[in-house]
Amino acid sequence: MTSYGRRERPEPPEPLGAPTVDAHTHLDACGCETAEDVAAALDRAAAVGVTRAVTVADDLAAARWAVQAAYWDERVVAAVALHPTRTAAVTDEEFAEIERLAADPRVVAVGETGLDYYWDYSPPEAQQASFRWHIDLAKRLGKPLMIHDREAHADVLRILREEGAPGTVVFHCFSGDAAMAHECAEAGYVLSFAGPVTFRNAAALREAAAIPDDDHLLVETDAPFLTPHPHRGRANEPYCLPWTVRGLAEVRGMQADELAATTDRNAERIFGLADLPPVATVTSPDGRAPRSA
Q1: Which keywords does this Swiss-Prot/TrEMBL entry list (predicted)?
Q2: CB 84 within 8 Å of CB 148
Q3: How many angstroms separate the Cα of 277 from the Cα of each of 54, 71, 173?
Q4: pTM for the full model?
Q5: Disulfide check for 264: which of 20, 111, 204, 285 has CB 3.0–4.6 Å away?
Q6: Rounded-to-integer distance, Cα 117 and Cα 180, Å
Q7: Exposed, middle or buried: residue 290 (CB in 10 Å: 0-12, 13-18, 19+)?
Q8: SS3 for 260?
Q9: CA 80 to chain centre
């Protein structure tokens, strides 16, 4: 049983007592290729209480795949954008295709976009220009903006102020400190927490995780990356989310099932999940009949 290269998947966690949503995952990078792969991954997740997932693109090929996957299974929706590390040389045609894909009714967010100063794949100027373009796209489409922010906190917040943030901003895999969490809370941004909130060396992140109010909180895997404790270093998948739910609930002084239900309601509201047309009533991007789970 392997996924994400040669890494082995951990055995499933104890199921949650209330359903919740994986607000950010990469099903393609988890090894999913076909509709059957997607259904199997969501079946594994559903068995532990993770009933829906947002699969997120980081380049154009992944964006095409994510939109298709959202038509393969009712439990899957998509977010599309160009990851900041993919922005060194982007053509007008590529931006135009991202815009077309982002307008699809089963795409619930523009993301992940933002800034990444950890990797040296794209110069800051190119990243910032792309980030500004994606902010504008989210506003024009009326969809949430899903932000990737790695070692770029000040510039991400500055550009959001300069451009004027969309109505909904989600900081995926929030990695800031308590001061940044307070600033985000004051701005009304949504903070989504992943496996690192369970890591033993993440005291500052846990302090930040206690700050947002319940209505501005999401939980995610960012699978296949960032597998939560106690399985750090092994392959991650949406079914691993309960470990993060339990770790985050402990930080916030909540019962795990209460946090699961809260983040489920939030994901439904933030991403408009209740308003999506059933896949059986819409045409998939390649014109083929959609496959529903």
Answers
A1: Hydrolase, Metal-binding
A2: yes
A3: 16, 11, 28
A4: 0.93
A5: 20
A6: 17
A7: buried
A8: helix
A9: 10
Contact 75, 106 (CB under 8 A): no
8 Å CB contact between 292 and 280: yes
Farthest CA pair distance, the chain: 49
Is residue 17 left, alpha or beta, with left meaning phi > 0 and alpha meaning psi from -120 to 50? Answer: alpha
The DSSP output letter for 18 is S
Structure tokens at 182: 């307070």
Direct distance between the N- and C-terminal alpha carbons of the chain, in angstroms, rounded to an integer = 23
Query: CB–CB of 168/270 below 8 Å?
Result: yes
- Number of H helices and E strands in the chain, helices first, is 9, 8
Coil vs helix vs strand at 132: helix
In the sheet with 145-150, reading across from the earlier edge strand, the strands are 20-25, 50-56, 76-80, 107-116, 145-150, 169-171, 190-193, 217-219
- Cα separation, 209 vs 249, whole angstroms: 10
Tokens for 278, please give them: 């059933």
| pLDDT tens for each residue of 33-66 | 999 999 999 999 999 999 999 999 999 999 999 9
Cα–Cα distance, 253 to 259 (Å, whole number): 10
Helix (H) or strand (E) holding 149: strand 145-150
Task: Specify the DSSP element, H or E, that contains 217.
Answer: strand 217-219
